[in-house]
Amino acid sequence: MVEWIQRWRYRIEKGSPHLILLVGLLLFIIFVSVVGGFLVHISGVGGALPESMWWVFLRISDPGYLGDDSTVTSAFFGTVFTVIGMVVFMAGLVGILTSLIMSSLKKLHEGRSAVVFRNHVVVIGWNNEIFTLISELLTAWDDTGIAMLAAEPKEVAEDEIERRVYSQIGRAHDRKFKNNLKTRVVYRNGSSLALRDLERVGVHKARYVIILAGEQERGTTTDVQQIRILHAINQLRSHHDNVGDFTVIAELTMQRLRAHAFYALNMNPLADTWVRLGEQQKLARGEESFLPRTTQQPNDQDITVINGDQIVSRAIVQCAIQPCLSKVYNELLSFTGKELFLWRPNDDWQPVFKQAATLPPEQVPLFLNAHLDKGMIVGIRDSGADFGELFFRPNDWVENLQGNDLIVLADKQEWQNPSPQLRKEINIEPRATNGVADYIAESSQPSEHGILILGFNRRLGVVLEQLSEYCEQYPDTQMRLTMVAPQIPDEFYKLAEQWPVVADAQEKGRLISADFTDWNVLGPVIRNSPRRKSIILLTDDCALSLSDGSVDARVTLALVMLRAYRGDAAWQKHFDESNIVAEILDPQNKSVIEREQLANDIIVGNEYVSRFIAQVTSDFRLEELFRELLDYGDYELYVKPIENYQVSKNDQFSEVTKQAAAQGEIAIGYLFSEPQAGVKMALAPDLMQQMDNAERIIVIAES
């Protein structure tokens, strides 16, 4: 008997308990009405059997009928059935209905329903990048819906989005605009591996699917989780017919698992530029390739794999080498101001290209840009090449102009609305150039680059890898590293064999485990370490397990200490030409550091990764463009003194363009200083812009 009861209880729990209990309760009421009616009928209290059954039901459903009983027998039966009715209706039926309504309201509040979007953006996962990502997506897309799926409780997630996204947007727009944004963003709580939850956010109907990595303990475990999500997405889409094209942007931290992501979607990994390049390099070294070949045709529109830690680390190192470069990346990666995008000219440009083919290479960039009424052409992407090859050097422009996409730097909204006009008549006659040979001889002098790193986090390994790559690209540069962090893991010392800069620092005793916010620690380090050109402050969240606010507070405290040292005449010699790069987590703390001018470059890691992802959603081909600029490969961004280009204060930017092109570079803007605002930047300025306040020129050039 007990086993039978337990079995039925289990069935009720696994089924629809509210519906089962409601049906059981109704059956019990019918049973009591029938049996009670028969007893009332034979006792002579009621009339015929149907009338007796109705008499019982009235007492069960309404206690008010108890006052109509005039005899002892009728009062007895009326009391019994009224008590049963109170238990059944009040404690049973009303309770079940109330619980059913509350459960339905709870599910509605938790967002259990499926989204109604189509061709929308789905964001899977939750980390600190998500707030900037949502802001950038709302800016990039006018009416596209955004569906989010994560394990965070719905109330907590929506409160955080309200505080860190909508409230910031609301400061610059009216309430109607802010409410319209809220209707475009829908959050659903659930598992990223459950097909039912993926279906609720409309993965099978989405145009873009963004999969964010976990915030902590990134590595193989996190990447395996990402690949499992890709496999679940592929399963869901295979269950639905007539699904449209879509692009997946997935964060992975391990380069060796890049091909796995493609196999999870039943795709050919050779569709990926970097997998294909790695295989070709392996074959060139005479090694055997063990990568299976699939029958799927390459389609690089389907998935883009990025490594957020590499993006941030590369930006940190490039800013350490090139002061104020973060300002350039901040604007290029954002959808406000000037940004990079690809543009296919119409047939009206064919005569211009034919005329450009007859000019010397150093005149081609200026000639093309003079035909634009806004924006600037900075490079070419060979659409027919295996790797989507990029050309920034003017010598490569002439033979690749026809039939390829042009890389444009402009305000995209201004560029598209209305479209740029082709100028038929141009009148620019810059001075003759001095050629490139003298410049190359000037810029190849040996140098020593001292770097002081304060803090330790998971990205440090990639930072050191990039520094080593820099040394390989520039053999004449000698790198001297000093590092101070509250906790330096023992495993880090094993990296000395891999990176010579670490080995040298270990031998010289320049790996110091101490709190760099202590005057007695930071002072001796500054005084005794080799002459430095860069000071890098990393967020030491991994070592200290601190919150975003605490980590940024420590970075700000160290910056204040460095400013105090720089203001002391006795210590100024230790900061000669030092460039300070600060990494922070919370974008809201950036304005404080900028206002006080505590650092030359401020890297908000979450902003960089989020904006990179948002840029890729607008055009998947931008991934290879930004990767080229951030990597120490063929082309990079440089900030160079204006003296390198032999222009005077009275010259226009067109003259800078001509002089840079003669040196094999593309000038895209310049930096200038303002007393109160610090260093300011002008990207893609008008060719007629006077250079009277310019101090440094921003160029794209070969390493």
Describe the structure.
With 703 residues, the protein is of the alpha/beta class. Among the domains are: 2-110, Helix Hairpins (Orthogonal Bundle), CATH 1.10.287; 121-285 and 295-306, Rossmann fold (3-Layer(aba) Sandwich), CATH 3.40.50.720; 439-615, NAD(P)-binding Rossmann-like Domain (Rossmann fold, 3-Layer(aba) Sandwich). 46% of the residues lie in helices and 16% in strands. The chain has 27 helices and 20 strands. Strands 3-2-1-4-5-6 form a six-stranded parallel sheet, with helices on both faces. The chain has a six-stranded parallel sheet with strand order 13-12-11-14-15-16, sandwiched between helices. It has a four-stranded antiparallel sheet with strand order 7-10-8-9. Helix 5 crosses helix 6 (154-170). The radius of gyration is 34 Å and the shape is elongated. It starts with a helix and ends with a strand.
Question: Distance between the terminal alpha carbons, to the nearest Å?
Answer: 83 Å
Form type: elongated
CATH architecture of the domain at 121-285 and 295-306: 3-Layer(aba) Sandwich
Q: How many β-strand stretches?
A: 20
CATH fold annotation of the domain at 121-285 and 295-306:
Rossmann fold
Count the helices. How many? Answer: 27
